[in-house]
UniProtKB/TrEMBL annotation:
GO terms for molecular function: hydrolase activity. Coiled coil: none annotated. Keywords: Hydrolase. The keyword Hydrolase applies. It comes from the Bacteria. This is TraI domain-containing protein. PANTHER family: 3'-5' EXORIBONUCLEASE YHAM. GO terms for biological process: rRNA 3'-end processing. Pfam families: TraI_2. Residues 162-295 form the HD/PDEase domain. The keyword Cytoplasm does not apply.
């Protein structure tokens, strides 16, 4: 697990207060205090941040099989140094996990692009469709997906090739696809707009199978196309939609199997949402590449990035004032 490196200002003892919360366990370190009492220092994380909690092992036993990124419920007192002194620590129940807001258990600490992360969570929680919110929970709050989605680049050497680039690109595509939908079809129902957002957000979710939890390429990156993993990554969420909102499940499957550049699945687009996601994907990639191509030049004229040629006119009236 990652080292615990959180330092918070001390609080007067009279401000100590009880609490109960449900979090992801993202770090733990065993240590002894000055009188040889055994403690566990725990990092408890959610979409808002982290808390440091201490567990006295002489007084409270740790349940077996609580591991990295498990969802846990902790009860105790918040006291000195804003640390929590726990008297109960256990796995969260299904009801406790179900009561959390959409994406609340995503650990903000694992995302290098914090502003983008906050936008993801706030937008997901603002969706009117309870079915789509539950779908996102089932896809993104999985232990085997969340770290890669928050850490991975969108590509190794192409666009958004930096830690957190996958999330940045995914959110760009989602927002731009919705913007095109609203511009061209302003009377489109909100549910269709929200479905367009979700389709754009998860169009590259298959890439979480091609990177490890630290965002490094793995064997699947060399052996498989990430598009082949998209439906697999969303299978748990799609199974839920099949039962509760089958039309949404079919729309998402259609967008993801025909919207990628070159239509790798060979299925022509039968709805505008698929075109909006496809075009937003290409625009996001090109915009990032163009910015990189001119990052070391004066910003005008011709520049290359790999095999791609980019041009910005040099006329005085076209340059920023």
């Amino acid at each position: 697990m990652k080292p615990l490196d959180i330092h918070r200002p001390a609080r007067p003892p009279h401000l100590a207060r009880s609490f109960t919360g449900t979090y992801r366990l993202t770090g733990r370190v065993a240590f002894f205090d000055d009188v040889k009492t055994p403690f566990l220092k725990l990092r408890l994380s959610d979409c808002e941040g982290d808390h440091v909690a201490l567990l006295n092992l002489d007084k409270t036993s740790v349940p077996e099989r609580i591991g990295h990124l498990d969802t846990v419920t902790a009860t105790g007192v918040k006291g000195l140094s804003s640390q929590f002194m726990l008297h109960e620590f256990r796995k969260a129940t299904q009801d406790e996990m179900a009561s959390l807001a959409t994406l609340q258990s995503l650990p903000r600490v694992y995302c290098p692009v914090r502003e983008t992360f906050d936008q993801l969570v706030s937008t997901a929680q603002s969706l009117h469709s309870a079915h789509l919110r539950e779908f996102l929970t089932r896809v993104l709050e999985r232990q085997d997906r969340m770290e890669a989605f928050l850490n991975a680049p969108a590509s190794v050497s192409y666009h958004h090739a930096y830690p957190g680039g996958l999330l940045q690109h995914s959110l760009d595509v989602a927002n731009n696809a919705v913007a095109m939908l609203r511009l061209n079809e302003p009377d489109m129902p909100r549910l269709m707009q929200e479905t367009c957002f979700v389709a754009g957000l998860l169009h590259d979710i298959g890439k979480t199978y091609t990177y490890d939890s630290k965002g490094k390429p793995n064997a699947a990156w060399k052996l498989c196309s990430h598009d082949a993993f998209t439906l697999e990554a969303c299978a748990y969420g799609l199974a839920y939609l099949d039962q509760h909102a089958p039309d949404l499940a079919i729309m998402l499957r259609h967008v993801w199997t025909c919207a990628s550049p070159g239509a790798r699945y060979g299925q022509p687009a039968a709805m505008t949402l698929a075109r909006y996601v496809r075009d937003a994907d290409g625009q996001s990639a090109m915009a990032d590449n163009q910015q990189r191509a001119f990052s070391r030049t004066n910003g005008w004229g011709f520049s290359r990035l790999g095999q791609n040629l980019f041009w910005r006119p040099e006329g005085p009236t076209l340059q920023p004032q």
